[in-house]
Amino acid sequence: MYPLLLVIVLWLIFWADHLFPAIDFYKFGVKPGELTSFKGVFLMPLLHSKTEIGHIINNSPPTLILLGAIIYYYREIAFKVFLFSWLLSGLGIWLFAANNNSFHIGISGVIYAMAAFLFVSGVLRKYLALQGISLFVAFVYGSMIWGIFPVKEHVSWEGHLAGMLVGVALAFVFRHKGPQSPKFLYEIEKEMGIEPPDLEGEWNEKVRLEEERIATLERERESGNQPTSEVKIVYEYIERKIGDSKKSKE
After folding, report:
1. What confidence tens digit (pLDDT) does each residue in 233-245 have?
2. Distance (Å, rounded) from C-alpha 107 to C-alpha 90?
3. Residue 104 — φ and ψ, nearest 5°?
4. Are the CB atoms for 68 and 57 separated by under 8 Å?
């Protein structure tokens, strides 16, 4: 529900940008290094290019899928991950991007942060389900890696790079929170200070006792004594006489 609501808000703001042409919505984005533009750290992800509808179309599906995956698999820390991705990616642009008299807008920095978080977090946790998500992210959004390089004009590669670095950092910061890989019994006992059983020693002791039992039986057989551990079967029967047999026939 939350990813869908966010995407709806993005489209409503995109629509409002067309309804009120007198207001330059892009000026609410981030202009690196300018104090008056610091509000863009909070507002930049909500804004998209009015002249290029492909900007918001391309950002909508990744926002739904990646944010949905974080909420589903990392419910305990999902809000923190998303909030830090939102703020720190914008802050990174404001602090380190070159000021070429342009504004940075769009939620792509947050998308890069979420994708990097899911991939690195799944690798760190060694949890099969999360590793599957990591492979999914790498397969579907692997081409995003080229977005951190200045290969396209009018594309905020600084925002993509900042988002990716934030996502990697968050994966390490929250590596001990959220879902963890299942632990084996011996790992739990080790954490509780319980010494693991000496399985090899127990097996060797069983083998030794069995060898001693067999050796004892051998000695008893050689001495002519009935082995105490063997089962003695006694047959008791009544002998039938021949005369009785004939009478029964008569």
Report:
1. 777 777 776 655 5
2. 10
3. -100, 125
4. no
Three-class SS state of 104: strand
pLDDT value of position 163 = 93
For residues 46 and 137, what is the distance between their CA atoms, to the nearest angstrom?
23
Long-range CB contacts for residues 189-192, cutoff 8 Å, separation at least 24: none
The b/e string for 3-16 (b: 16+ C-beta within 10 A; e otherwise) is: beebbeebeebbee
Q: Are 123 and 134 in contact (CB under 8 A)?
A: yes
- Measured between alpha carbons, how far is residue 12 from residues 18, 26, 42, 217, 246 in Å? 10, 15, 17, 90, 113
Give Dmax over CA atoms of the chain in angstroms: 132
Q: What sign for the dihedral angle of Cα 219, 222, 224, 227?
A: positive
Domains, in order of start, for the chain: 2-173 (1.20.1540.10), 199-249 (no CATH)
pTM: 0.70
Partner residues linked to 104 by β-bridges = 30
